[in-house]
Amino acid sequence: MAFDINMILELYKRFPAMVSNARKLTNRPLTLAEKILYTHLWDNKNMSHFIRGKDYVDFSPDRVAMQDATAQMALLQFMQAGKEKVAVPSTVHADHLILAKQGADKDLQESINTNNEVFNFLSSVCNKYGIGFWKPGAGIIHQVVLENYAFPGGMMIGTDSHTVNAGGLGMIAIGVGGADAVDVMAGMPWELKFPKLIGIRLNGELNGWSSAKDVILKVAGILTVKGGTGAIVEYFGEGAKSLSATGKGTICNMGAEIGATTSTFGYDKSIERYLRATDRNNVADAANKIKEHLTGDPEVYKDPEKYFDQVIDINLSELSPHLNGPFTPDLATPVSEMKEKAIKNNWPLDVEWALIGSCTNSSYEDLTRAAAIVEDAISKKIKPKAILGINPGSEQVRFTAERDGLIESFKKFRSTKIFTNACGPCIGQWDRDGASKHEKNSIVHSFNRNFAKRADGNPNTHAFVGSPEMVTAVAISGRLDFNPITDNLVNEEGEKVKLDAPIGKELPENGFDVEDNGYQEPAKDGGQINVIVDSKSNRLQLLTPFKPWNKENIRGAKLLIKASGKCTTDHISMAGPWLRYRGHLDNISNNCLIGAINAFGGKTNAVVNQLNGKVGEVPETARIYQASGIPSIVVGDHNYGEGSSREHAAMEPRHLGVIAVIVKSFARIHETNLKKQGMLGLTFVNESDYDLIKEDDTFNFTDLAEFSVGKQLKLEIIHNNGSSDTIMLNHTYNKAQIEWFIAGSALNLIRKNNS
Length: 755
Description:
The chain has about 750 residues and is α/β, with parallel strands linked by helices. Helix 8 (about 210-225) packs parallel to helix 10 and helix 24 (about 735-745) crosses helix 25 (about 745-755). The mean pLDDT is about 95.
């Protein structure tokens, strides 16, 4: 159904004039991304020609979406903002706190029982403040958003990095931390550095075993995990028009793995078909009236090098199926090269588990193509060698798939596990038998992320990312190096057979259907609803404001940890079993940086306490410094904070007394989260200065009292032998962000302004 239709119609009413004004202001044709950005300015009267990658701009998003793990902290912060109701349409989706173990029915009920306190909290807060609540089992946030809320030309933010999925319907949808969501829900502007633009021209048309997932797998190999940082990726060309809306969503979704601010596609026939199939004829009709404004100008796509900062060409007709990994989503390998590469790198070739679903590949189309492969294998008397696990994207998708016989097709493989319409293994919510043994093994999945320990907690699980089609083919063969295009399989009768290329259905022939979509509409008047948090709870904790900065130089800070190599939000604040504490800052802070590799010794969760010389756990050591009134510092490598939007990765160090994170480079969302929580997120002017920092160093900021826009900061490093080094640090704080630091956090400033 179409939610918030009046808001959409109002936006479309003013859209053409605002695009025209932006075109006059810039004196050139506009990309789709620019059109959406300029039509969502907070202050339309003072429209300016913004410089990409430099100017900070205030925006007015149309809506906010939150998943249950991040929503807890976001809503705990919103409760402090002094507002009676959210200022923009907002939703919460219960999808992360659901375990995958035995199967949907048992797992869902067990998860509801285990997390009842949290679900009740979220339900009551949503009721009180006018927020829509999607109950456990309703589906994965991004699929539900695509089915119900995403619309061409809109702008939304969400407290999950894969919010970008909504770009499949022509939105600018951006993953943020909870504090950013609080800003928007409180009716304040949302700030973003005006993004650079990467154009990806798609030619040709997919065929055979290739799918939309292979587009972004190839792009990830080209741009790497940080190649899209600070940029919006805009797909165009005849190849783009040939893709389904959910295929477009898949591509946009995994754009989070290249660091992109977001990705998007122009409005076209496939998006219109999807809108109508999901009972949003009124949105499609309205979009058709201004459709020329809901895509980039023709001149842009004719000569893209003039208008984008970077242009990449991909021929869909020549695109090969890929498997990316292990341990990083940008290690791209065409399946034809996997055998040689796997042997060279000693990757396990036998595959025990293959997983389909997650927020990126759980659409009806995905399931039809995977089911077609299963039926083909059965008809040819082939038994699967691996267990096939499936997480449908939403109850609507699951119900329709069951109605149309797809679930029954999967069950013909007796080893198949149908999990809940939830994230499950994608985020570490997978209770996998034998994972605790830490045996070296390979799995394949259609999820986006494959960091060490991400799926099952086993650091030796080599996870490879592929399309649902390739995942299914590997499940049947049981081999990582299986190439369905060229390789034969031996069936039960000893015959050599080959799998046929899958043929799926873009949309269900009989339309989507569902008995209960799991939506809870908020109370019209939430004034009488009380949100109670038990002070003895180990799951939920009301927040205490962080202390403001005293405007003096910070001196005598100790090194907490110098992280070496990849340090994602999974390393900084692990998911999996720690998800249960996402609403309790003190408890979850016990996982702070326990996954980061210490540059001194190469171990995790083992750092030297400078007060007693003993080796201790990272959170424990931080608490000892804090109790002694000593601030601490974290040092990191490139792309620090890659991965999830989880603001806990910023709030935990802040809670434990860390005052600065100094790295070679940041992932966008994490840098913003640090700023929001009143911390110093700084980068080395000279990257080699990272090597100067010793395990027992003490740090003095000598000119922090003059903290200002564009001014580098000086840091004095005192070594234990009495020598010292002075280094320079860059920052990207603007005037407003410096005010957050002074106030102790952005939330402190919001509360002050609303008091």
